[in-house]
Amino acid sequence: MTHELNTSVLGSDVSLRFNAPWAAYWLAFLRILTGWWMMHGGLTKLMEWPFSAKGYMLFASQGTVLAPVLQLFGNNPTLLAFTDVMIPVGEFLIGLGVLLGALTRLAAFFGAFLMTFFYFTNADWGHGLFSGDMMGLLLFITIAIFGAGRVFGVDQWLEQMDWAQSRWARLILG
Amino acid sequence: MANLNTMDRIAMYLGGGLIILAIPVMGVIVTLAGSMSPLYSFTAGDASGTVLNPAMAPEGAQIVSSPVFDPILRGYLILLGLIIFMLLGIYKLFSPASDTSSTTTAMAD
Questions:
Q1: Global pTM?
Q2: Residue A94 belongs to domain spanning
Q3: Which residues of B sit within 8 Å Cβ distance of A?
Q4: Could you tell me which of A29, B8, B51, B52 has the fewest CB atoms within 10 Å of its CB?
């Protein structure tokens, strides 16, 4: 079924026509692949435990935009230990949440947050500033904007519960 | 999905299914089987790396880790899935437009 969405963006009236079943299918497809991509990153780090981000934080990211933040964390043993745990665990949980469509917007928010760091500290810009990290960042934002967990996701079920009717629940589900 | 035709369903189930199978499903199996990389890992003296095919490893290199599923096979599955999506796109170019539609008006800024 073709839907026509009439709305206003930045003062301009726009009419967006799209095929609703394909749009829903594609959101789920995009979500599953993006979730697996991030979950794989965390899972392999967890399986090769212990993980250390020290070399990356202190040396590999030198000269990049966010290097001062990474240096701050890399030179403080407590913050470094926290980072060494949170990178693998965070990647795994973000990926799992997005893959399953559970607390999708919350997971996608942290995915975008992490990708922002990766984008600037990897600075994989040899072929231009639109890198693979930027694509990942945009994927997480897209998933969050559309609330892609509502298609074949756990959030589709969670959103039927009473506690999920509040505004804050809507912000993390979807 | 009442307004999807057979071609749409084939693309969704087969095209998307092949890609989901090749990337996350096989990926989970490969990873849990102990391969941190989907490629073949080799060592050659002090050097190490990964290759798509053991034959591509440098001379004298030793393959130290092989994935459960050959990466080339996974690549073909992904390619097949993408071709199915592409064929659906071409089919839609030449098929009559659907006449079912609905209109939604959304408020913004």
A1: 0.85
A2: 21-172
A3: 1-4, 8, 12, 16, 19-20, 23-24, 27-28, 31, 34, 36, 98, 100-109
A4: B52
